[in-house]
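Annotated sample (chain length 272).
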Amino acid sequence: MAAPPRALPIDGHVHTEWSWDAARGSMEGTCRKAVDLGLPAVAFTEHADFVTIHDGQHALDVPGYLEAVERCRARFPELRILTGVELGEPHWFPDAAAEVLAAGQLERVLGSVHCIEVDGRTVDLSMKGLLTPEVAAALMRAYLMETLAMLESEPAFEVLAHLDYPKRYWPHGELPFFENDFEEEYRDVLHTAARRGCVLEVNTTRGIEPHRGLCPGLTVVRWWWEAGGKAVAFGSDTHEPARLAGGFELAAQVVEAAGFRPAPEPTAYWLR
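Output written by the structure step:
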């Protein structure tokens, strides 16, 4: 008899209508989807971004968000719902980051880099046309150096999110992406994250093509194990209920192949 399929891990990186860029987000709808999928838990890690370069960007209303979580906990008692936040570039704005963390109990805190400085201006690596074949490698190295700076800073966060975020926007059709081209920079980041006691997130980018959306992939997760990293988290980074836990079956296989195993408690991080 075939073994039953393994339960999916907790989705620890989820956005709802409380994030400024989640127009299709729904906390209640996401909870309903999580129950349908049989997820053990979900963490709503809403954006707290302090670089204001996008239209429609606004601060996170932490009290309002926490009230919404409590309503969903009452409505979906079978689902464990974790509070959380995704701090964007917290090392650039330590006071603002500390203010968000002091505004209420946040159980899962992600540290993220989306932006870097290029020629004296702040850019988000997701900006269309930025990662051209001519400059992509230099921008990737600059991104990893900025991630290293975040890891060496004071603001408190536990999970290092989407380590190779630029891979999503890489010009794959014109320039292959090879992690080994950036091995030294990756390993510096991973060793620093391990010394800090961080958890490495494997972000599935809502289940899009793995060569673009699995951040990071098997090579880097293996480097994390070699660096002494103790734990791995999973996150879809979804901004709508329909794509919750997208790509998690593959992500779980990748993480296991790198040497990490599910913890006995289903909502915990996977451990070495």
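Annotation: Residues 11-271 form a domain with the TIM Barrel fold (CATH 3.20.20.140).
Annotation: The two ends are 29 Å apart (CA to CA).
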